[in-house]
Design a protein that fits this description.
Blueprint (H helix, E strand, L loop, with lengths): L5 H4 L4 H16 L7 E6 L6 H14 L4 E5 L7 H4 L8 H4 L4 H4 L5 E2 L5 E4 L8 H5 L2 H13 L2 E5 L9 H8 L2 E7 L5 H13 L4 E10 L4 E7 L1
Parallel strand pairs: 1-5, 1-6, 2-4, 2-5, 6-7
Antiparallel strand pairs: 3-4, 7-8
Helix pairs in contact: 2-3
Bound molecules: adenosine-5'-diphosphate (ADP) and magnesium ion (MG).
The site of magnesium ion (MG) has 5 residues, from helix 3.
Length: 223
C-alpha cells in the first residue's frame, strides 16, 4: 500500500483528523435521508479526488462501516495504485457482463478491515456510455444492498467529460473537492452549476490544501 492512505499510516495527523471530521459531517448531513452512495468529484485533475475518496473510505471503514470504494474514473483512475496494485479488471469490464452474476469477482478486499475496493478496469472506448447504462444503475442498486457505504472516486467535471455528471445523478450525494487557492472560483462555481443542472445532491465542498513545503495537509469542509 502506498503512503497516500494517511488515515492508515498516520491516523493522528491533522489531515487524518480533518477527514474524520468530514466523515462525521457526512453522517450528520444524512440524518433524514439515506446516504449510502457518495460521489467524490472536482472541477479539474489533481485536486485531490482520489486522495480524499480513498482516505474517506478508510475513515468510514475504521468507524465500523462496511465500505466499498469504486473507481469510476474509468479513463484515468489510479485507486489501484493507491492500494498498491496494478490495474486489473474492474468496473469497465464488469459493466459488459451480467452484473448480478459476476460483480463479486471484481471486488477485492483490502488490508483495512471493512474496506473493499473495485478498480476501474481496462479503459474502454466509451466510458460515458458504460456509466450511463442500465447495467450501471443495476450495479449501484445491488451494491447499496451489500454495503453500508459505497464511495465513488470519479473524473473531473470540467473539461468536456460527462462521466461525473452521469454518476452524480445516480448517487445519493456528491462531495466536491477543490484545491484550496488553486482552483479559480469561477471554475468551482461552474462545477457546482453543472451538478445542480442534473439535480445532484451536493453535500458540500472540501477545500483541499496541499502544502507540500511544510508537509502539512489540511482540508476544510463547507456545506
Ligand atoms: N491533502 C493532501 N495532502 C497530501 N497530498 C495530497 C493531498 N491531496 C492530494 N494529494 C496528492 O496530490 C496528487 C493528486 O491528487 P489526486 O487525489 O490523485 O487528484 P485527482 O484524483 O483529483 O486527480 C496525488 O499525488 C495525491 O497524493
Ligand atoms: Mg483521481
Amino acid at each position: 500500500m502506498q503512503n497516500e492512505l494517511i488515515l492508515n499510516y498516520d491516523p493522528k495527523s491533522v489531515i487524518s483528523e480533518t477527514i474524520r471530521t468530514l466523515r462525521t459531517n457526512l453522517q450528520f448531513s444524512s440524518v433524514d435521508k439515506t446516504l449510502k452512495t457518495i460521489l467524490v468529484t472536482s472541477s479539474m485533475p489533481r485536486e485531490g479526488k482520489s486522495f480524499i475518496a480513498a482516505n474517506l473510505a478508510v475513515a468510514f471503514a475504521q468507524s465500523g462501516t462496511k465500505v466499498l470504494l469504486v473507481d469510476c474514473d474509468i479513463r484515468k483512475g489510479r485507486l489501484h495504485y493507491i492500494f498498491g496494485s496494478h490495474n486489473q479488471k474492474g468496473l469497465s469490464n464488469l459493466l459488459l457482463e451480467n452484473v448480478e452474476e459476476t460483480y463479486k469477482n471484481y471486488i477485492k478486499r483490502t488490508k483495512i478491515e471493512n474496506l473493499s475496493i473495485m478498480f476501474r478496469g481496462v479503459t474502454p472506448p466509451n466510458p460515458s456510455e458504460l456509466l450511463g447504462s442500465e447495467k450501471n444503475k443495476e450495479l449501484i442498486s445491488i451494491l447499496k444492498k451489500q454495503y453500508d457505504m459505497v464511495i465513488f472516486d470519479s473524473a473531473p467535471v470540467n473539461g468536456g467529460l460527462t462521466d461525473s455528471l452521469i454518476m452524480g445523478r445516480l448517487v445519493d450525494g456528491v462531495v466536491i473537492v477543490s484545491a484550496y487557492k488553486k482552483t479559480p472560483i469561477n471554475v468551482l462555481k461552474n462545477t457546482k452549476k453543472s451538478l445542480e443542472t442534473i439535480n445532484a445532491n451536493i453535500l458540500g465542498v472540501v477545500l483541499n490544501q496541499m502544502n507540500t513545503s511544510s508537509q502539512q495537509y489540511y482540508g476544510h469542509f463547507y456545506e
